[in-house]
Each structure stands twice: as C-alpha cells, then as structure tokens.
Amino acid sequence: MNEMVLAEAEQRILDYYASHPVQRDAWGVAIDSRHVQHYLDTGRKRFRILIDYLQASTPSGARILEVGAGYSVVLMYLKELGYGVHAAELPQCLEAFSSALIEQEIPVTPWDLHLAEEPLAGQTFDVVLASEVLEHVQMSLRGAIGRLAPLLAPNGRLVITTPNLYRMNNLVKMVQGRNINEPFGDTAVLRHGVVIDNRTHPREPVRTELVQAMIENNLSIIHQDMFNSHPRRRWINLAYTVWPKKYRDHILLVGRPKPSPNQPFQNT
Known about the structure:
The protein is an alpha/beta fold. The chain is built from eight helices and eleven strands. The longest helix has 25 residues, at about 35-55.
C-alpha cells in the first residue's frame, strides 16, 4: 500500500466535490464535499483491505470492473498503478457519485443491476468488485451474483464485501430490545402509483448465504474474511481481537469460476 498514492486519490475526489455544484443521489441525499469526506473517513480501512488484496493477487495491467463504484478511491488508486479500471454505477446516481471518476478518465457505464439488460455483456474482466453493493439490491443474492459472474474471465475473481447482519453492534441492539432493521420513513414512497421499499439497506446478508449464492452460480470460494472498518475507540478495537471474527462488521468473499471439464484450474 502506497499511502501517498491513496492520499492523492482521496484529495482528487474531494477537490472535485468542493468545486462543483451539490448533487443528490437516488435517495435524496446531498452529495457534497462534507458527505464525501465522511464516506472516505469511515471507509478507509475497507479501501486498504481491498487494495492490498487486489495488489497481492492481481498482476498490474489486469482489467478490473467495480460495480456500484460510487466515488471509488480503489479505482483511482489502481489506475495510478497501471491497472485497466472500469466502473459501473446506477444511472440515477451516476452524476452524483461518479463524475469525479469520469474527470479522471475512468470509464463509467450506467447499469442498474436489477434490470435484465446488461450493458457490459460480452466483456470480461480479471476482477469484478462489488463492495458494499448487494445490501442495496432488492433481489436475491443468487440473482444479483448471477448478473456479475458472467463478466468474469475464465480465471477471474469476483470480490464482494457487504455489511454483516450478524455483527456485534446488531447483537447488542437485540439484547437491548432494539430493532436492527433500517426504519421506514413517516410516509410511504410511491413510484408510478406503487409503494416501494426505498430504504438504503433493505436486506443485509450473513456469510453463509453469500457463500451459498456464489456456489449456486458455479463459483468456488477462494478467499473469505470478516473485518471491521468503522473507526472506534481503542478499547473497543482491543475487545474485538478476542471475539470471534463472525461478529465483525463486514464480510469479504472472493469467488472464481469453476473450470470447465476441458479447462484445468489455475491457482494463480
């Protein structure tokens, strides 16, 4: 990890949002430099984990697609190291989230994962990254991963991170009698006269169902981990070192297509 390259990537993103009009995402949230700074601060450990894994497992020059890329410090960083990076983002959020990437000449394809049409069909990538994306979709994990897996090259990797429903914070809330589900607003959200679920995290997964969804899409699990990302007090971080990993905030899974009968598996 080159901390200077990471800091420069973050600064380019912040400079963009400080010098452009405020946009709103699909949920009506104002995306300004203050919002983006908070996102960077709370996600920095996750970015480092992903970058370290990708650098260690993927040769420079490889093609990497991030789906639901948002501001994507990861792609900004990897572009500087010579990777061929490409982003995909929800069409109604693309201007708010990904304009800074476009300014840095990173291609961004509008793509709603819910829709059957796949604008990247026919292309393949050495890595497809979906980090903190699947908790936003309103379809099964099997169905969502089924849209991502065909984009993998024969020995490509699908890298996924999501919040962990079974995290310690949620367990503490339940012991206290508090609801862990994201609340609805005071009024229903209508789209074309139909009430829709407009929550940002309609369903967070647990590790076992993510593993099963990958297996059902003919992917072998080649790496899995659990990690914390959000900054916490030192004593809380120390406490996490003695608790089982299954209680941590995030799930990291990496899957690879199972080889066809005529294609030997390459463990690279």
